[in-house]
Amino acid sequence: MLKTSHKKELNNVQEELKKKFDEGVDELVVWNGKLVAQAQKEHDEQLEALENEIRGLRGDKKAKGKQIAAQVKVLELQREMYTDEKNQKLEEQKQHYINKIEKMYEDFNKELKMKNFQHERSKILDYAKQLEKNEEMMQKVKQKYRDEAEEKQAKFEHKNMMLELKMLQLLLENKQQEDLEKDAMLLIEWENRCRFFEQIQKERNQEKVPHFWNLNEEPDLCKVIIHMVVPGESTIGSAETAKIQLGGHGIVGNHALVENDGKNVYIQPLADNIQILVNGKVVSGKQKLQDNDRIYFGPNHLYVFNKPQDGRKKPKQPMITFKAAWTEVTSNKGNHFGNKAGCILLSAL
């Protein structure tokens, strides 16, 4: 469809051409009328002159009859010829005007067709421009949807990647957990093996190296803790530097000193405010230890000293029990510290 402006312009052109055509036709009609009127006037004048001349000749009595008749006949022929000539001229003028009107009408149609063609061409060009605009808009819309699709695809891929990453993290955590469990089981197994070999080594060392083993009111818990007395000096206490580690109430950092010279083992306290008992008696200085001596280091530490070299030389002795050893500790009436601890422990026995 043409736009409103094109329609309006075309209507104006058509009206203008029609107006010019009508004006041309009217002008030709008026001109034709004038020519016809003038020709008719001249014809009438000449006809009237001939008729007057004929009447004059007929009224002239002096003229001879034959001559007059011949002249009248000639004048009549001239009048008829003049009339025919005038009619022919009028027909020619009429045909000329008709041809001119037809040419004007043809020119009018040509100009009108040209205007229509120009407007159709303008319409096509406008339609092509509109198509270009629509194509640009369509490209923009396509690009917009393409960008949105790519963004959504990127988000979807990112989401899938995050899910895969979480799955990998979960698998890794499960794998790490499984590995940790396996490592823990292997570590426990290794520790058990180490304890087993340590126990075997301790049992072997007990047959050669002097050592302390613990006493406990529960028989099954005796000989669980073993401290080897290696050659040289060994500090006993709660300090990190002590070779034999003891802790708890009544134990200080440097509690006692044990000396192994290769033949004999000696013990002595390292502080004045502590009491160490051997077989229920207070150790005031450096004292030599014998096989199966009961050593009291504090309220929670009661040990038996074992010297394998001497034990093999002596006859077999009865088993030392916690109750018997504790009775030795509490039987020393002068040992105030022992009496306190004895009251506590004997109440539990």
Brief summary of the model shown:
The protein has 349 residues and is α+β, with helices and mostly antiparallel strands.
Explain what you see.
The protein has 349 residues and is an alpha+beta fold. It has two domains: 4-133; 212-348, Tumour Suppressor Smad4. It has five helices and eleven strands. The protein has helices spanning 4-59, 65-206, 308-313, 322-331, 336-348; strands spanning 211-214, 226-228, 232-237, 244-245, 256-260, 265-269, 277-278, 281-282, 287-289, 294-298, 301-306. The strands form two sheets. Strands 2-1-11-10-7-8 form a six-stranded antiparallel β-sheet, covered by helices on one side. A five-stranded mixed β-sheet has the order 4-3-5-6-9, with no helix packed on it. Strand 5 (256-260) and strand 6 (265-269) form a beta hairpin.
